[in-house]
Amino acid sequence: MATASPSVFLLMVNGQVESAQFPEYDDLYCKYCFVYGQDWAPTAGLEEGISQITSKSQDVRQALVWNFPIDVTFKSTNPYGWPQIVLSVYGPDMFGNDVVRGYGAVHVPFSPGRHKRTIPMFVPESTSKLQKFTSWFMGRRPEYTDPKVVAQGEGREAITAPRKAVFSVHGLTSPRALALVHIKGT
C-alpha cells in the first residue's frame, strides 16, 4: 500500500533592490527582510540583508542607486501567508545619528516572470508637538523595533506616517515557482 506523500511548492525570487527617490536625503542605506506565513520556510538564499551606503546621482533624477541583489527560495504547502518584502531605509541626521528615513512593504509577485514594483515609503511620526521636539532634541526619532510590523495590519491603526519617498524593486519569480514537487518520506 502506497503512503501519501506531502506536496509542497517552491517560490524562487531573484532580483535586486534597485533605487529610491528620497528628495531631501543623501548617503542612505537599506535593509530588507521577508515576512511570510507559518507554512512557509526559506530553503535557499538570504531572507534578510543590508546594503552599502549610496549617494544621490548627479543627474536631474537625483536617484539613490543600490542595485542590491536578492536571491531566496521558499517552500510551502499552501499560498496563505504569501511572502512580502519589507524595506527599511536609514541615513544620518544632522547630528550624525542613523535614523529611519522610510519603511515600505510589498508582496512578492504571484505570477512568474519579470516584475518591477514601486513601493511607497513612510516614516512614523510623533503625535504631539512636545514628542516631536523631544525626539528631535534627543536624536531618537520614532521607529519600529521590528520592521516586520510594516507588513502586518494589526497594531498600526494609530500610527501617523506621511508618505516620504518611493522605492523600486526589480525581480524575477521563477516559472517553476508554482510547480508541485512531491517529497517522499524516509
From TrEMBL:
Principal subcellular localization: cytoplasm
A Pfam family per the record: B9-C2
GO biological process: cell projection organization
Role according to the record: Component of the tectonic-like complex, a complex localized at the transition zone of primary cilia and acting as a barrier that prevents diffusion of transmembrane proteins between the cilia and plasma membranes. Required for ciliogenesis and sonic hedgehog/SHH signaling.
Keyword flag Cytoplasm: yes
Recorded family membership: Belongs to the B9D family.
Subcellular compartments: Cytoplasm, Cytoskeleton, Cilium basal body
PANTHER family: B9 DOMAIN-CONTAINING, B9 DOMAIN-CONTAINING PROTEIN 1
Keywords: Cell projection, Cilium biogenesis/degradation, Cytoplasm, Cytoskeleton, Signal
Residues spanning the signal sequence: 1-19
InterPro entries per record: C2_B9-type_dom
Subunit structure: Part of the tectonic-like complex (also named B9 complex).
Protein name listed in UniProt: B9 domain-containing protein 1
CC per GO annotation: cilium
